[in-house]
Amino acid sequence: MTGPTPMPPSLWAATAEPAPEIDRLASDHTTDVVVIGGGYAGLSTALHLAEAGIQTTLVEAHQIGWGASGRSGGQVIPGIKYDPEGMRELFGTDAGDKAAHAFGATPDHVFDLVERHYITCEATRAGWVQPAHSKLAERKALERCRQWQALGADVAPLDADQMADLLGSPAYHAGWIDRRGGSIQPLSYTRGLARACLAAGVSLYGGTAVTALRADGARWQLPTAHGPGIRARRVVLCTNGYTGDLWPGLRKSIVAANSFQIATVPLPATLDATILKGGVVASDTRKLLAYWRRDQGGRLIVGGRGTFNEPSSAADFNHLNRILARIYPQAADQPIEYRWGGRVAITQDFLPHVHQPADGLSVLIGCQGRGIGLQTAMGRWLAAYLESGQASDMPVPVTAVHQIPMHSLRRFYVSAMLAYYKVRDLV
């Protein structure tokens, strides 16, 4: 079985590779390391731990990929929010350069795993494009490109005509292309990682919800909702946007924001050859950014912010229809075949966080909307750190859990932030 909870409807659930057969935990279990969460972060951590010869178990409350990892946009984007110079300001010159090189190479970790483990997931590495929505944003985008060029990244500026030709839309100004980026079918990739974990010897269980983390001497006790318990020397918590209250304060250290997507029917031949040439993916420079891509079935997929609550009707996605019409008026009449959403874990400083709030407990959280590359790489770095004990294995320091002030008012200040960003996007 693959767990009692069905996958939420989406384009990815409808077109993904079949899920591997994964049972629910049937009896008490003892392991060296238990990883909680079956998304990019958890699967990557478990895989790299097992490949290092460490006895590893992974448990997922629902199905593998049930959360944002099975519902994301499928864009594999290099870097983080901060450009290279911003990382130098954050971490210092040497550590900032190291972080920039590490975060800039996150797509390599994804495509290397795809190749090494023969993961069938529509992997395409044609590049990620960032078009500018205004002249001011154009200057900032081209400066971003310049900074990455100075580090030797495979990037290039695009003028307005080149951008319009590549996108198949004149809606934007100049921008840049980062050829390190690409796309995957996210649920197929997640399921492929699960198969790789099984092949590496990871004990993998779905439909297994951990209800508490209890320190017991040199071991942790993890009861589950359906009865059997787990004993482990170390615990790694990788629940990102679906983080609950397993550890005090952790849920309040992030904002779990919804990102929504729509997918058209496969585009007719008259549009197919002109929109997103070569398979590039795109996300623009707006604070309330839009992101879009094609899938191998020829559909046009558009994503952006969502309501704070889970979507309840097609009307909750109307803003994405307007975005589609703004960028591609020639495709605005194409029927929408799929609508879905998922939660993104945003930290206050927009960095991925690694915490160790207790002996033997590690937390990896903060996908920041770039989870495929970022969390895949962070899982590898965290596994290396747990094996060696050397913090230098990671581009970010281990930090304490800090709750976001007035987290209970997050709906209010997220709404205020969205209103502010709407105004900023007019510039």
Automatic annotation (TrEMBL):
* Signal sequence extent: none
Pfam families reported in the protein's UniProt record: DAO
The domain of life for this entry's organism is Bacteria
Domain named FAD dependent oxidoreductase is located at 32-384
Gene3D superfamilies to which the protein is assigned, alphabetical: D-Amino Acid Oxidase, subunit A, domain 2, FAD/NAD(P)-binding domain
Enzyme class of the recorded protein, top EC level: oxidoreductase
In terms of SUPFAM superfamilies, this protein maps to: FAD/NAD(P)-binding domain (SSF51905)
Alphabetically sorted, this entry's keywords are:
Oxidoreductase
Keyword Iron included in the entry's annotation: no
The Enzyme Commission number assigned here is 1.-.-.-
One MF term in GO for this entry? oxidoreductase activity
Q: What is this protein called?
A: NAD(P)/FAD-dependent oxidoreductase
Query: Can you name the source organism?
Result: Salinisphaera aquimarina
